[in-house]
Amino acid sequence: MDSAKDKKLKGPEKAAIFLCSLGEELAAQFIKELSPEEIKRLSDYMNKVEVSPEIFKEVNKEIKQKLSLPIEGKNFIKNVIAKAVGKKEAEYILGKESDFLKKINEINPDILINFLRYENPQTIAFIVSNLKPEKASTILANIPNGVKTEVILRMAQLDTVSVDIIKSIGEVLKEEIFKKEVFSEVRKVGGLEKVAEILNRVEHSTQQSILEEIEKTNPDLASEIKKKMFVFDDLVNIEDRGMQILLKHIKMEDLLLALKTASDAIKDKIFKNVSERVSEMIKEDLEIMGPVRLRDVEKAQQTIIETARLLESEGKLVIPKKGEEEIFV
């Protein structure tokens, strides 16, 4: 069986084989980035290329691995850095003190916001995906709306990151923020769960704005993100016993503020799970409550959501997943 190695194919020949496998539309996107000389060389190869199915598969596999090499585990990173700077320097770089994920979470949010303001959406998506949800939501809230949607889209589609992207981001961070320190490892990042977790922590108005923008360009993705989110209106799906437990852990002032803009379904759920006396008291307080700031209402709702999540993590109540009917026994 012939192989690419046996035939000693050169880089341009492998590129020509790979482009032929992409189809006209996608190949055209790649060719747009090439110089006229490179296009001419590739064109010549593509016109005369005739290869066996085995070589075709082998070349495709090789190029795809190089384009998007998964970064999982310390050994790969250790070997790459050792080859670049030497074994001794690599051991220093890979020490706990220079851990990339730890360091970006220790950076002052204002510094990070200022730094990311000038970066492209891919870089922002990668960094935000590695932040803790609280910090990520703060950063996201300070990104311009047009860029914000693009960042969310890229985060939702992030899985593994190519070596070149990580190297370039690491270099910029080292130069701009870490100075002489470098990161040690990266991990699988992003995805729908990460996006949903971050959006759950931003203000409702920001949340809605982002989802509406995503819906315009990718309604299916917006729908998938919503399915993984837990918002205030979802409290209506908690079974009654769980709701009663939740209400015991909520301050009355937070409950009143949260109900200011709540749907009738949520209000009915609350009234159903408190005594008649408390129900009447809440209704009266809501009637006489004057205008309040929307951000205070959203903050109260967020407090209740986080309390519900905490109680779920402690096994005290169940938050049903959207689209799934929970069975209690």
From TrEMBL:
tRNA-binding listed as a keyword: no
GO CC terms: bacterial-type flagellum basal body; plasma membrane
Start and end residues of each Flagellar motor switch protein FliG C-terminal domain: 212-319
MF annotations from Gene Ontology: cytoskeletal motor activity
InterPro entries for this protein: Flg_Motor_Flig, Flg_Motor_Flig_C, FliG_a-hlx, FliG_M, FliG_N
Residues annotated as domain Flagellar motor switch protein FliG N-terminal: 8-96
Domain Flagellar motor switch protein FliG middle: residue ranges: 109-177
Any Pfam family the entry gives: FliG_C
Keywords: Bacterial flagellum, Cell membrane, Cell projection, Chemotaxis, Cilium, Flagellar rotation, Flagellum, Membrane
SUPFAM superfamilies: FliG
GO biological-process terms attached to the record: bacterial-type flagellum-dependent cell motility; chemotaxis
Subcellular locations according to the entry: Bacterial flagellum basal body; Cell membrane
Main location: other
Membrane topology (UniProt): Peripheral membrane protein
Protein family (similarity comment): Belongs to the FliG family.
Record's function text: FliG is one of three proteins (FliG, FliN, FliM) that forms the rotor-mounted switch complex (C ring), located at the base of the basal body. This complex interacts with the CheY and CheZ chemotaxis proteins, in addition to contacting components of the motor that determine the direction of flagellar rotation.
NCBIfam families registered for this protein in UniProt: fliG
PANTHER family: FLAGELLAR MOTOR SWITCH PROTEIN FLIG
Protein's name according to its UniProt entry: Flagellar motor switch protein FliG
